[in-house]
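Worked problem 6 (solution included).
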Amino acid sequence: MTRIEINSVNLPPLPDSFGNPMVRDINEIVAPAGIDWLPQTIGWYVIGALGVAVGIRWSWRVFKVWLRDRYRREALSRLNALASEQAATPASINELLKTAAIIASSRREVAALTGDAWSEWLAQRMSDPASIAQLSDAVGAALYRATSSSAAGNAQLLKQAQTWIREHRDDHGPA
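Solution. The predicted structure is:
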């Protein structure tokens, strides 16, 4: 029998019948050492470095596209402002389209375009020119043929202008 000493106080020894008799001869299980979570070979470090490099490159490219498309977001914002103020006339929509087109291409190429040449240029920049066919016709009719436009016609023109701004081909971006 062992004597237990707690805080310099002597306690009486424990009797032999103390505790659960079923577990007297059981040995304590020793837990294995903790698992190291760091990679053990150089290959994992190389794969990790490549993954980080690919992630940084992808993030940079996404950021560049975001910066390059800044003019689209601004043009759409101005178009929505025109729509909310009920000031979306073919002339104001054409002005926004011309501004976005100059930024997407070049001033030398776009600034002098009028009439059918302007309408054709707008259509050439779309992958599906039929989606904005009414846009080029309506702009030409309202600006160059002095026909009046209705509110419904202006709403349709506004919708097609938004489509053109979102989907047109940018000369400065990837083809």
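Discussion: The two ends are 89 Å apart (CA to CA).
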